[in-house]
Design goal:
This protein has six helices and 14 strands. The protein is an alpha+beta fold and 254 residues long. The protein has two domains: 6-84 and 224-235, Phosphorylase Kinase, domain 1 (2-Layer Sandwich); 85-206, D-amino Acid Aminotransferase, Chain A, domain 1. α1 packs parallel to α6.
Length: 254
């Protein structure tokens, strides 16, 4: 394997320079973090599962006209993606009360919200990704009003599609996090979906039992994180009942 230039390393992914101009390679790690990375561990195969689940969901979203950074899968842990200028916002879509909204507003966990809620968080680990308003976004120049409208429109479309898809396989989409970027083609700029959509970035509950099938297994020390991710993959038809996830991916060249 040729030596590759690392562009960025986050909690769960690494970005490398791509083979062509305007592309990157997104590598999914086995690392798991919670509480702003205060809690850390590794789970063999997590990166493989997240790669496959995110690839599947991004492909389906592209088919309904949602623009994404995904180009193609390269191997079990890596994707070829379009290079974008990431907007420093975490966009959280909530359908059912869970997590921080329960603590902030005293809402009972598991209570369906009157309507889906879109929240913005400033993407800054040192500050703990604080909740912000649209006024903060425009005042500090993180995005302009038209970009915010585009982001919200895409978030609503993504939520509608994911809720329908997962309901069909017996899973509730409680909430999820999205990230967006500016993709430049010549003089044309377009807001597109970036990052990933996986059990790392979603709360997914079994419709019948309310069992978590996401990273809350790790956050709450419930155990069975890999089994939960595998269950999501199986229900999506990505993983067959007898298929074993190969946990060893390409060797990182640093």
């Amino acid at each position: 394997m040729n030596r590759r230039r690392k562009i960025y390393e986050g909690k769960a992914k690494i970005l490398y320079e791509g083979p062509e101009a305007g592309t990157l390679i997104q590598h999914f790690k086995d690392d798991a973090t919670a509480n702003n990375a205060e809690k850390k561990d590794q789970f063999d195969g997590k990166g493989v599962l997240n790669n496959r689940i995110s690839e599947y969901l991004f492909t389906r979203l592209s088919e309904i006209g949602v623009p994404t950074h995904f180009i193609r899968s390269m191997n079990m842990r890596e994707q070829l993606i379009k290079e974008v200028e990431i907007i420093p916002l975490e966009v959280v879509v909530r359908n059912i009360a869970a997590g921080t909204i329960c603590k902030r507003l005293g809402v009972e966990e598991g209570k369906p919200l009157p309507r889906s809620i879109i929240e913005f968080y400033y993407k800054n680990d040192e500050l703990g990704d604080p909740l912000i308003a649209e006024e903060h976004i425009t005042a500090f120049g993180w995005a302009n009003p038209q970009e915010i409208d585009d982001i919200m429109s895409l978030a609503i479309r993504i939520n509608d599609y994911l809720c329908g898809l997962f309901t069909g396989i017996g899973i509730q989409v409680v909430d999820f996090k999205l990230e967006f970027g500016r993709h430049f083609q010549g003089d044309i700029m377009r807001i597109i979906l970036a990052d990933e959509i996986s059990p790392d970035s979603c709360r997914l509950w079994d419709i019948d039992t309310n069992e978590s099938l996401d990273k809350d297994k790790f956050r709450k020390d419930e155990g069975g994180l890999i089994e939960a991710y595998q269950e999501v993959a199986r229900r999506l038809g990505i993983l067959s009942d007898n298929e074993r996830v190969i946990t060893k991916g390409p060797v990182l060249v640093k």
